[in-house]
Amino acid sequence: MSMINKEINDFAVQAFQDGDFRTVTKEELLGKWSVFFFYPADFTFVCPTELEDLADKYAEFQKIGCEIYAVSCDTHFVHKAWHDVSEKIKKIQYPMLADPTHTISKDFEVYIEEGGVAERGSFIVNPEGKIVAYEVIAGNVGRNADELLRRVQASQFVHEHGDEVCPAKWQPGGETLKPSLDLVGQL
Predict the structure, then answer these.
(1) 154 near 139, Cβ under 8 Å?
(2) How far is residue 69's CA from residue 56's CA, in Å, rounded to a whole number?
(3) Are 33 and 74 in contact (CB under 8 A)?
(4) Is 117 helix (H, G, I), strand (E, B) or coil?
(5) Mean pLDDT computed over 86-113
(6) pTM of model > 0.85
(7) How far is CA 52 from the centre of its chain?
(8) Number of H helices, E strands in the chain
(9) Torsion over CA of 134, 138, 139 and 142, rounded to 10 degrees?
(10) Are strands 33-38 and 117-118 parallel, antiparallel or unpaired?
(11) Strand, coil or helix: 106
């Protein structure tokens, strides 16, 4: 089943951000764009490379009004410990959500029961709390923050301009298409 247009459920979880613990709820993300970036576990191999890549792009996500929420099934204490010892993870300024009860992972359908971890999933959530884009990939393949940023920008564009669509490799400021009978078979 597709997750497109699924409204995420209410949640309240602990997060580690800016050297402190805090509670993050669904209410916090309503009214703005969000990316939920699930990864299998702290203190692993591919995960820190992805989280560092996102950390390097975080200001660009913030500039377009999008918050990043990194999510694993670890606790907020483990997030802090990883932050304290890893040079890559020390760069992170976005919230690292703790999901030890698997509430969020199950809601987004990325929880791996037999492993007790989350799949490597990226979800773009619109200001109404609905999923508008996502990908879930094997745990041994890392994701690209540049492409995720581009997909958020494209999602924002079509949200604002409902009569236009973004073609492959679209970049902000690039040419869009207006679906019409005239374009059928012409592209």
Answers:
(1) no
(2) 14
(3) no
(4) strand
(5) 97
(6) yes
(7) 14
(8) 6, 9
(9) -70
(10) unpaired
(11) helix
